[in-house]
Design a protein that fits this description.
Elements: H1 2-18, E1 32-40, E2 54-62, E3 67-75, E4 83-92, E5 104-113, E6 121-128, H2 139-143, E7 148-153, E8 161-164, E9 166-169
Antiparallel strand pairs: 1-2, 1-9, 2-3, 3-6, 4-5, 4-7, 7-8
């Protein structure tokens, strides 16, 4: 029993003393924001026909870490288009128009089938961080609510639903 307790005690002491490398815990000093947005087919260009898919984005942004984590929840309209696949999320500086180039594109592959009632509604979580974060020159636009998000699919490559992102400082 002593053979187990002594090494466990030594390991615990090292672990506890190494957590802050002997210093004080540091907090993140910059602002953080709640991020939200409502996405609809009427807010993409061209406007989706025969589809009323709705989605919402909710997440948070840490300015110092330049880390934006979000969840998109969707309810796909399958009344006309019975089979579709969500393929990505696109971010724009302004309301997208035909020919607009997104700032960032994230993959999101979800097959939706009305016949089997598969994935008609659901959610997924993604983020912009690390080497794929918000570009430095775009942070001001992002924080000032000038970014738009578009959910794209195979049937609607220009967007099945889109909307403006709104940030609220915590």
């Amino acid at each position: 029993m002593k053979k187990i307790l002594i090494p466990a005690f030594i390991l615990a002491v090292y672990a506890l003393s190494g957590c802050t490398k002997g210093g004080e815990l540091q907090t993140v000093d910059a602002a953080s924001y709640r991020v939200g947005g409502l996405l609809e087919g009427s807010k993409v260009a061209p406007v989706t026909n025969n589809d009323t898919t709705k989605a919402s984005l909710s997440g948070w942004y840490d300015e110092q870490m330049n880390d934006f984590t979000f969840t998109i929840s969707y309810k796909k309209d399958t009344s006309i288009i019975k089979l579709d696949t969500l393929t990505g999320i696109q971010f724009y500086t302004a309301a997208p128009s035909i020919g607009s180039v997104p700032i960032r594109v994230l993959a999101a592959v979800t097959t939706i089938s009305a016949a089997s009632k598969t994935n008609i509604s659901g959610s997924f979580t993604r983020g912009l961080a690390g080497g794929y974060d918000i570009p430095a020159e775009e942070k001001v636009n992002f924080i000032n609510n000038k970014w738009y998000v578009v959910l794209v699919s195979k049937k609607f490559p220009f967007g099945v639903a889109g909307g403006q992102l709104v940030l609220t400082k915590n």
